[in-house]
Specification:
CATH class of the largest domain: Mainly Alpha
Shape: globular
Distance between the termini: 34 Å
Number of helices: 19
Bound molecules: fe (ii) ion
Helix content: 40-55%
Number of domains: 2
Number of strands: 8
CATH architecture of the largest domain: Up-down Bundle
CATH superfamily of the largest domain: Dehydroquinate synthase-like - alpha domain
Structural class: alpha/beta
Order of helices and strands: EHHEHHEHEHHEEEEHHHHHHHHHHHH
Strand order of the largest sheet: 1-8-5-4-2-3
Largest sheet: 6 strands, parallel
Length: 359
């Protein structure tokens, strides 16, 4: 068994400001990598800038990260900043910004690195230090080495082969306070998918189950936020962030499985948010899993069984139409990927995959 979690995590109120010195220790000139607007609205960008200014760390801003960031965006940051003397990269935002930050930290470390570098496992994977400040509650990217990038040339999303773990994760539920309800739903279902796919995974072990069980217990307490049965307290927002982080620790050990594999083409072709594209396949994935383990996992998240879970997901995402030909395309892509077909903890042949892909 193997457990690797090299990220220093602070999960507490105002941790960006409180740990300004920990950021400053990592570099003298930071590149902040973020999206176009949300980090300005939720206060995270102001906090990061204030922390850097308090410690006299120079900083530049790259705020062009789009949802599902493309390799083109990563290479654009390389072109803009490779001669700027950047020695630290700070990702601020949702999974898109954090994943982009890791890839940018890699290409800035290796001048001349191009698209092929991101996908060539024989290349040096060292990168500039990365700090992550998550502002959504699904990705867990702040504690994983994974960077999922859109490949327009392949019409899907593909993880970079290099694992770039952040050095520091600064996690504060306050950044979720004004997040749109739909964003909370989508990202929180992504976190749930990470928890389930990491455990129902060929690579799962007792360490994965440790982080996933803790994550599911946190997640269970926030269910009624997603169904709008009550509004979120500050404690709920902290729990949403924490379940996402624990889910990230789980997938950092074992990876994801079939719902994620099936989701990528849907996100590309239908522009479905990641969490929704994954969530669509989640009930059928659990249905295909061994009954005793599935029921135990469902109970940890506060569900009495599969029927209640399917109704819950249906209530969140009901009405989302996925055309038959789209399900066919993603089914065929995954069926042809031997590694993905072996990623679940239970045997999956084309017949089983069909039940998951077509629901
Ligand atoms: Fe995900």
């Amino acid at each position: 068994m193997h457990f690797y979690m090299p990220v220093r995590v602070f999960d507490e109120r105002d941790c960006v400001l409180r740990h300004a010195k920990d950021i400053a220790r990592l570099g003298k000139k930071a590149l902040i990598v973020t999206g176009k607007s949300s980090s300005r609205k939720n206060g995270s960008l102001d906090d990061v800038m204030a922390a850097l200014e308090a410690e006299h760390v120079e900083h530049l801003l790259f705020s062009e990260v789009e949802e599902n960031p493309s390799t083109e965006t990563v290479l654009r940051a390389r072109d803009l900043f490779s001669d700027s003397g950047i020695d630290l990269v700070i990702g601020v935002g949702g999974g898109s910004a954090l994943d982009a930050a890791k890839a940018v930290a890699l290409v800035l470390k290796h001048p001349g690195a191009d698209l092929s570098y991101l996908y060539d496992a024989t290349k040096d994977a060292s990168a500039l230090p990365v700090v992550c400040v998550p502002t959504t509650c699904g990705t867990g990217s702040e504690v994983t080495g994974v960077s999922v990038l859109t490949r327009h040339d392949k019409r899907t999303k593909i993880s970079m082969v290099h694992k770039i773990f952040p050095v520091l994760a600064l996690v504060d539920g306050k950044y979720l306070k004004n997040a749109p309800a739909e964003l909370i739903v989508n990202t929180s279902v992504d976190a749930l998918a990470h928890l389930y796919e990491s455990v129902l995974n060929a690579k799962a072990d007792d360490y994965t189950r440790m982080t996933a069980s803790a994550g599911l217990r946190c997640w269970a307490k926030t269910k009624e936020i997603l169904t709008k049965e009550r509004t979120a307290s500050q404690e709920d927002l902290d729990l949403l962030m924490r379940s996402s982080l624990l889910a990230g620790m789980s997938i950092a050990q074992s990876g994801t499985s079939l719902p994620h594999a099936l989701s990528y083409a849907l996100t590309y072709d239908l522009a479905l948010p990641h969490g929704k594209a994954v969530g669509i396949f989640l009930p059928a994935f659990l249905k295909a899993a061994p009954e005793a383990e599935r029921d135990e996992l469902l109970q940890l998240a506060g569900f009495s069984g599969l029927a209640e879970f399917a109704a819950f997901i249906g209530g969140l995402f009901g009405g989302t139409e996925v055309p038959e030909e789209e399900r066919r395309r993603t089914f065929e892509m995954v069926a042809g990927n031997a590694a993905k077909m072996k990623s679940a903890s239970f045997p999956v042949d084309e017949k089983v995959l069909e039940t998951i892909a077509f629901g």
